[in-house]
Structure formats: C-alpha cells, structure tokens
Amino acid sequence: MNPAVSDTIRLARILCILLLVYAHAQPYQPGVPESLLSPMGLIHYLRQLLGHTSVPLLSLISGYLLARTLSARPFVKELGNKWVSLVVPLVLWNLIYIAKVYLESGLETAPAIHEWPNAVLAISAPPAMMPLYFLRDAFVCFLISPALIYLARKLPGTTAAALLLNALLNIDGVLFLNSAIPLFYFSGCVLLVHKVAIPTHALPWKPVWAAGLAMVLLSVAAFYMPSEPGVSEPSSLVHGTVDIALRAAGCVVFWSVATKLLHSRAGGFLLPFEPMAFFIFCAHGMAAGLWWMAIERLGYTDITPVFLSYFILSPLLSLVTCVGAVWFIRRVTPSGLSLLMGGRIPNQQQMASMFNPLGHKHLARTTGV
User: Does the keyword Transmembrane apply (predicted)?
Assistant: First the structure.
C-alpha cells in the first residue's frame, strides 16, 4: 500500500476513535433536549456532529483494508485472524464491563441467564458494552465479504442502492445491529476493487465545504423534526435519511481533516497513538466514566462549566487513561493485553513514542496488524 495512504488511514482511524468518545461521554439525557442553546442541547449537538458521524469512516476503512487482505490471503486463513481480532475482544470486554457493573451495583445488575448470549456476543441485540456492537457487525461483514467483494466488482451501483435501502428501512432485521455499517463497509470494498485513487493531499474545497455545511445543518435537524409519531423516531424513514446523509458527509470531512493533519504538528501528535486505537475504541466508555465518577464524588456534576469542560475534554481524558492502562497491563500480562487488543499489542518503541509524540512522525505498525 502507498505509504501516504497507509499513514492517512492510521491517522483517520485514531482521529475518528477519539471523536467517538463524544458519542458516549457523560452527561446523558434521554431524548432530544428542548433547546439547542442549552448546555445539554450543545452536548447533544456535539454528539451528533463529532461523535456519531465518526463511525462510518471506520467502517469504510475496514471494508477497504479487508478487501485488500482477501486479495492476497484466502478467506479461510483470514477467518482465524478475524475471530481473534473481533470476537475474542468482544467477549472479553463485555465480561469486564459486566464485572465492573456487578462490583459497582451488586448481583441484581447481572444479566439474566437468557440475556447472556446478547450481553456477551450481541447475537440479536446490543451487548453489555453497547459500542462494541461494531465488532459484532464487522465480523458479520467479514463473513459475507466474499459476496460483497464479488458484488463490488460486478454490480457496485445496484448493490450500493440495495444496501442504502436496507440502511434506511432495516430490512435485514437482526443480521446487522446497525444497518448502516454494511453500506459503508461495502463502499470501502468498491474503492479497493476498482482501484480508486485515494487522495492523501488536500481534497477539492467545494465538496469538503459542502459536506461540512451538511454536517452542521443535519446535526441540528433533530431539534426541529416534527414531533408527530413516526417522524422523529430513530426508526423512521425521515430520521434514517438524515442519519445516512450525516454519516456520508462525515466520511468526506474526517478524511479531509486527516489529509490536512498528516504533515502537521497535530498529526505528529496523534499518529503515535494509533497503535492504541483499538484499545481506546473498546475502553473509551469506561475510561471517560472514571473521570465522571470522580466528578460525581466531588459533587460537581450539576455545575455547568464543570460538566461542559469534562465533555469537551473527554477524548483527551480517555486517551490519557487508556495509555496508562495499556502501559500497566503490558507490564503485568502482555498476553492478556494481546487478547484484549485482538493481537494489536504496541511494542516498546511505540509505547515510548506515546510519551513524546511530537518527536516521532513515522512509526512501525502495531504488532499483529
């Protein structure tokens, strides 16, 4: 792979996973706040603008990289690797989360016997650690990837239209917990199969600004959707259309940001943490939650400047916590860390670079990737 494309992918991955923290950081409020201009309205807006829109580019990158892998490696041989890199972490992290909740709240919070398959493996519903449904859906994408790659080669337009319809109407039922994931995953396959040139320098400003404007406006849409039943609900066609458009715009904007950051000091700061990306993805909810627990103990959760500052800083707080956790686990049980990270354990040089990231521009890949 072109080194510039590889580095941009790595930078986009750590950028999007850090922004994903905004989707799950406290404080929470059910539904949509009444006012966009309230503190909770601002938090809800940022969740949409920066948090939820960062996931589709991760799906697209996954599809692109897997199509590339399967062009050189048989599906059966890759199956074992995907089991270790997706299913094993899915199980372990959910067990850790269930144990954490049990220690905090007692036995009554443990899943009932019939709930364990979903809690641990997300068979037909989100797992105990909700964001990890992505690993489950990514594994399903892998299982059907030979068909997706074939369709990407023979019927890209028709298949994309069918997957778009599926994303809007959730036709697949429980095959995917998030029906948008296979759409963007397939898009990555198309880019690889048809050898589309991947831009690693500044994209044309018009489409990027158009996508950025769409993100800004569509993130506001939830505050102004009609309240009639079936319109503002997450399962509605209107909501789904806005969501898919927002996610597509996010792919353009966040890739453009990654190309801009690649040769900047900000990119030089972020890139050394890319070997941590998978760990941050799995642990970011608990990592951010530790800081929120501290704020709760101090009794500051209702103080607007405090919870707004915490929310805005939550990606950085999660990053700091995860780096410390990986450093500790790596010293105590490297093999355990490897299981938690799907085989993506950082080496000594990569760990050292995280403590002085501005001094390291190009790093070796994470072990096992």
Answer: yes
d(CA 308, CA 298): 16
> Could you write out the DSSP letters of every residue in 229-290?
TTTSSTTSHHHHHHHHHHHHHHHHHHHHHHHHHTTSHHHHHHGGGGGGHHHHHHHHHHHHHH
Decide if 254 contacts 50 (C-beta within 8 A): no
Reading the block at residue 339, the tokens are: 């299981």
Which residues lie below 8 Å from residue 145, measured CB to CB, with a gap of 6+? Answer: 66, 67, 70, 75, 189
Q: How far is CA 150 from CA 153, 156, 162, 190, in A?
A: 5, 9, 15, 10
Structure tokens at 121: 């493996």
Other C-beta atoms lying within 10 Å of the C-beta of residue 33: 18
Question: From CA 314, how far away is CA 286, in angstroms rounded?
Answer: 11
Pairwise CA distance, residues 240 & 103, whole Å = 38
The pTM assigned to this predicted structure is: 0.91
Give the amino acid at 50. Answer: L
* CA atoms within 13 Å, Cβ hemisphere of 137: 30
Residue identified by tokens 């080669």 is 153
Residue with tokens 């369709």: 151
Any idea what the Cα angle at residue 133 is, between residues 129 and 135, rounded to 5°? 110
CA distances from 142 to 84, 95, 112, 127 (A): 13, 23, 30, 19
User: d(Cα 152, Cα 159) in Å, to the nearest integer?
Assistant: 7
pLDDT digits (tens, 9 = 90+) for 21-55: 999 999 988 888 988 999 999 999 999 999 999 99
In three-state secondary structure terms, 361 is: coil
Burial code (b: 16+ CB inside 10 Å, e: under 16) for 110-149 equals bbeeeeeebbbbbeeeebbbbbbbbbbbbbbbbeebeebb
**How do residues 231-286 score in pLDDT, each as one tens digit?**
445 557 888 899 999 999 999 999 999 999 998 999 999 999 999 999 999 999 99
